[in-house]
Amino acid sequence: MSALKAGDDFPEGVTFTYVPYNPEQAGVTACGIPVKYDASKEFKEKKVVLVSVPGAFTPTCQNTHVQGYIEKLPQLKAAGVDEVIFISYNDAWVMSAWGKANGIKGEIIFASDDGAPFSTSLGWTLGARTARYAILIDHGKIVYAEKEPAKEVGVSGVDAVLAKL
Asked: N or C: which end of the chain has fewer CB within 10 A?
């Protein structure tokens, strides 16, 4: 597989892992049990924004990238987005803790592209880590897919995605 572009079908066989939010394990250090998220199946039925970052809790990812999506989640939902999913190279427990540390209680899925198989299949990595990119999928079809050319948050930021809705 290579990089995705508008008009492509979202590929088959793509899965991530995540820890579903559970109020009984709301503390940032509560672990929970990771479950498989069958992105290929789920994305056929929804409008989804998939955002990839190099790492949870890293400066640009935390201070700029995720904050923009959290702040503008109501606009994304109003534009018909069913789910926003953040993925990273980090494991499902780290991603869960990152969501909890940002006050997210299931409104955004924080999942793991553990070992970066999906990002690697696109050629969108930073060494061993997932690169910074955003993909807008509407019922299995790619509407928008862009990888950041540098460290900034431009083409993968919430404003770029909102402009495509």
From this structure: N
Let me know if 118 is exposed, middle or buried by CB neighbors in 10 A (0-12, 13-18, 19+). Answer: buried
Could you read off the pLDDT of 87-144 as tens digits, one per residue?
999 999 999 999 999 999 999 999 999 899 999 999 999 999 999 999 999 999 999 9
Catalytic site residue from 61, 81, 85, 131: 61
What's the rounded Cα separation, in Å, for the pair 58 and 151? 12
Query: Does the active-site annotation cover 61?
Result: yes
CA distance 92 to 102: 15
Instruction: Say if CB 105 and CB 19 are below 8 A apart.
Output: no
Distance CA 116, CA 16 (A): 10
Give residue-wise pLDDT tens across range 15-34.
999 999 999 999 998 889 99
pLDDT of residue 1: 59
